[in-house]
Every structure is written in structure tokens, then in C-alpha cells.
Description:
The complex is a heterodimer of chains A (175) and B (110). Chain A has 175 residues and is mainly α. Chain A has one domain (5-37, 45-78, 90-171). Chain A is built from 6 helices and no strands. Chain A has helices spanning 5-34, 47-76, 91-96, 103-133, 135-139, 141-171. Chain A is elongated, with a radius of gyration of 19 Å. In chain B, helix 2 runs antiparallel to helix 3 and helix 2 (15-39) runs parallel beside helix 4. Chain B is built from 5 helices and no strands. The chains are: A mainly alpha (175), B mainly alpha (110).
Amino acid sequence: MLFSERSIWTMVHGIGLGGGALIGLAAALFYLYAARSSDGAAALPGSRALAGATVLSAVLLWLTVIVGTYVIFPPYRVTPPAGVTDLSEFPRALVLASPSTAWLHSFAMESKEHMPWIASMLTTAVAFIAVRYRSRVLQNSSLRSLSMALLAISFALVAFVSLMGMFVNKVAPLD
Amino acid sequence: MATTSLSMTSREVNGSAMAALLGGGIGAFAMGAVVLLNEAGLFAAPTLYAPAGGVSGRTTLATIVWLMAWAILHNRWKGREIAPGRIGAATLILIAVGVLGTFPPVWALL
């Protein structure tokens, strides 16, 4: 078999769900940025697309963190039985075994455990606003600015933990 | 008819939006606080799924705090116009503190 079940879940988590969320967040940020000079416009096209992009991003982010926490993380953190010398099936033990890679757990994976949950909450808040207020999000400068700020923070957090995940998976993949 | 006009009114004021934004800030802060308390050895959220370890309890607890804070704020503000300046500033500060709390190098300072 070309890919193991654990490897497929890792790709679904990182590329499919996390990558999709990043694209959705980028699209939503673009909508909000592009509407910045339209203050006072009676009706703006794109409010439905903004709502769609933020809702899609929020759903993908929640799926990403749930799959990451409850499907990907358990096999990552399994403790190897005593006497095992081949640690390739035990990613956490593998990266902690060498001082040069220990940071991949103590910094990279520890960051990944909690930060993306914050991004999920913030994106959900903006998705709620985009659905409930539609074109007002694009017309009202304070609402638009705050929504942009929260989406930008979410994008930065997701991009950061995605990069950390790539580093971990490069050294200790879930095969 | 009365329901429709109430619904339109609540959509014209920004209270629901401010509640969602500040709720998000409170959720972020809760996540950071739960993680910091755990790292300091002062409070450990119960593990809800043993294979995932303590992270299952910490993230669930912070998510519950977020949803409760959002629901309470939404009920209080949904029919009101709220000044966005203070709420925006408070939200960004809460998010910054929450993110710092989940950043492993900060734990070393405890």
C-alpha cells in the first residue's frame, strides 16, 4: 500500500483541512481588504462570498483541530515499549531522542496543541458576523477592521502551526 | 410581525457582532490561561480522552468558556449599539495574552 492509514489522516489534516482553511482565510481577508474604499456604498457585491469563505474556513479549522487532537496526536505521543530501539513508529520519542530535534516536540508540537483552537474560535466569530450582518461588515469601517484583525491573527496562527507541522512530519512522519 | 421587526432591529445594531468579537477574545484568553495554569502546576483540566492526554481536557474547557462567554454577551448586547473602540481593544489584548499563554517559550518564565 502506497500510504498507510495514519499517513492518509496526516495528509487530510494538514493539506486538505488545514490547507483549505488557509485558502479560505486568505480569500476572506482579500474580500475585506478590497472593500476598504467602499464606505457608504448602498450595497456591495461579495458579502455572500465573504460569508461563505469565513464559514468554510471556520468549519475546516474545527475539523482540523478535532482531527489533529483526536486522530493524529494519539499515535504521535504513544510511548514505545521498554527495549525498543527502532523509534520510527513513535514520533514523539524519536524527536526527543536527539537534542538537535527535541525542539520539534517542546516548541513545535506543543505550540500546535493549543494555538489552532484559538484560530478556530476567532474565525467562527467573524463567520457569525459575516453571516448575520452581510453587507454591513463591508460597509462599516470599524466592523470591517476588527473582522480583518481577527482573520489576520487566525491566518498567522494557522500558517505558523502548519509550518511547525511540516517540520515535525519531515523528521518524524506518522507512517 | 413583531418578531420580524425585532429581528431587523437586532441586525441594525452592532451588539451581536461585538459580543462575538469579545467572546472570541475571552475564548483565546481562556485557552492561554488554562495552559499557563497547567504548566505552572496550579490547575490541570481533567483528561477527556486518554490517548490524546491532557490537551483534550484543556481545549474542551477553553471551548466551553468561549461558548458560555459568547452566549452571555450575545444575550445582553443583541439589541444594543456598543462602542466598538473599547471592545476592539479589549478583544485584541485578550487574544494577545491568550496566544502568549500557549507559546511554549513563555512557559519557561514561570
